[in-house]
Amino acid sequence: QVQLVESGGGLVQPGGSLRLSCAASGFKFENYAMSWVRQAPGKGLEWVSRITNGGSTTSYSDSVRGRFTISRDNAKKILYLQMNDLKPEDAAVYYCNAKHLYTNSEYWGQGTQVTVSA
Predict the structure, then answer these.
(1) 3-class DSSP assignment, residue 30
(2) Is 87 helix (H, G, I), strand (E, B) or coil?
(3) Which of 74, 57, 90, 66 is nearest to 22 (CA)?
(4) Nearest to 28 by CA among 100, 117, 102
(5) 104-117 tens-digit pLDDT
(6) How far apart are the first and last CA of the chain?
(7) Span 36-76, pLDDT tens digits
(8) CB under 8 Å to 57, separation ≥6 — which residues?
(9) From CA 59, how far away is CA 30, in angstroms rounded?
(10) SS3 assignment, position 40
(11) d(C-alpha 114, C-alpha 118), whole Å
């Protein structure tokens, strides 16, 4: 059974930090590029960051570059997102996404809520 389970969300003050995790199971994690995607209340999905299957290449949206860091541990099958200097506009449900290198296979987690408020 394929599962992507996010954790680490919560309430943080502006300028604070959170570390999100996404635990994968039921598929070959190392064959999938991984991304974080978020959805703020009343808005559509916004891509945040991506990491290649081996972890060698990362990319970020302009809105988070320099503040967020994506990483992965293929041995543990966990994806991370270190979020620093959080802003109110970062508040959203954060989802992890797995996309296979060569097929249309794609999986989504259930999301974790991040709230940024004083």
Answers:
(1) helix
(2) coil
(3) 74
(4) 100
(5) 899 999 999 999 99
(6) 40
(7) 999 999 999 999 999 999 999 999 999 999 999 999 999 99
(8) 51
(9) 18
(10) coil
(11) 13
